[in-house]
Amino acid sequence: MVLGVFLGLVLSCLLLLSLWRQSSQRRKLPPGPTPLPVIGNILQIDLKNISKSLRDFSKVYGPMFTLYLGRKPAVVLHGYEVVKEALIDHGEEFAGRGTFPVFDKIAKGRGIVFSDGRIWKEMRRFSLVTLRNFGMGKRSIEDRVQEEARCLVEELKKTNGSPCDPTFILGCAPCNVICSIVFQNRFDYKDQEFLTFMNILNENVEILSSPWIQICNNFPALIDYLPGSHRKLLKNFTFSKHYFLAKLIEHQKSLDINNPRDFIDCFLIKMEQEKHNPKTAFTSENLVFSAGDLFAAGTETTSTTLRYSLLLLLKYPEVTAKVQAEIDHVIGRHRSPCMQDRSHMPYTDAVLHEIQRYIDLLPTSLPHSVTCDIKFRNYLIPKGTTVIASLTSMLHDNKEFPNPEKFDPGHFLDENGKFKKSDYFFPFSAGKRICVGEGLARMELFLFLTTILQNFNLKSPVDPKDLDTTAVANGLVSVPPEFQICFIPV
């Protein structure tokens, strides 16, 4: 009896202490809904549509507000002005990586995407330079994408115009491009090793976009003690880690320091140059995770965008017809599209921008954090506080894009039919943490889609009016619904 009373008092004191600390924090941070002890505001957030919840909160609390995801606060930035001010004008202070426990469990701060501080700066700088040297934005990488686009066309011809689910085929093309950069070789679309990797990548995106993973990220203790899809995710990460470790060992055996073949070779050479530096970030662990980051990010985001693009082109055949007419006029039928064509194709350029705006691929991007105590818009944000930037709030801003829920290439065309840029177009995030592969992704999207539309007419087995373009999940990534498509050779 006495023990029970004592434990009750202890728990009550701990609860009061938690409430006092939460209340003390909240006085300095932007306003927000009142959190519950331990679980915070999690019950007030629709985990199947986080963007909608953030939009609703912004109507009450303004463009900057605080949510408690579990016991820890996260400052949410909602709207172009506040996001630009934070990520661009104060880019250095907002360049930290917020915690993402499911990833942190295995990456442990290594690689490019989930690292921080000195390691992140060195991995990002090295990756950008190496990708540039291997042709990102230059002719050589364009040649690789064009070659892969031709392989994609040959693979699509094998469907013989029959209805098919394009998920796998559209994943293979960008995957092969990044494979050629990271470890020099591409795969045949029927290669079993390739099939395994593609299945893992598709599975990971579905799991990461599920409400369960949002819960795991907000309550990390669940990761160790409860079953669930996060276990499969961790297993997939471990498989990928071992795969890239094997590639590293293969490259070490055949390395020629005077003739680097790919990203892994360049990293190994840098490791050798820094082997006497005890603080070097160039370790085999960082190589494995950096290669894995490039592979996953360079494959899945582009393949999902391509898949969503075809769904929208099926849904709006009048848009598709205009793009094909522009392809016929500028490129014709007898040569491959190239990046120089894009500046002469304003309607196609507008369609590609509108696709990325409409699908809102990464609604909240990945979490940031502040790298130091900062006074921002009259609030004091302590070092290490998680910051969530709503990309949806810019891509679907109804003043910049009238009727933002409607797919309309006119959002990026002026009254003369010329392409019109928008400062609100942030599909790759912004500031110091902007996507490393933005240039490659833009190139792939243009070359793959124009090559497909140059060679095929798209046909839906169902009436286009009956096609639903609503994302089936939009946690980390907006995932399009499954659909069937027929590729009819022109």
UniProtKB/TrEMBL annotation:
Stretch forming the signal peptide: 1-25
Main location: endoplasmic reticulum
GO biological process, alphabetically ordered: organic acid metabolic process; xenobiotic metabolic process
Cofactor needs: heme
Keywords: Endoplasmic reticulum, Heme, Iron, Membrane, Metal-binding, Microsome, Monooxygenase, Oxidoreductase, Signal
Cellular location(s): Endoplasmic reticulum membrane; Microsome membrane
GO cellular component, one term: endoplasmic reticulum membrane
Protein name, per record: unspecific monooxygenase
Residues annotated to bind heme: 435
Membrane topology category: Peripheral membrane protein
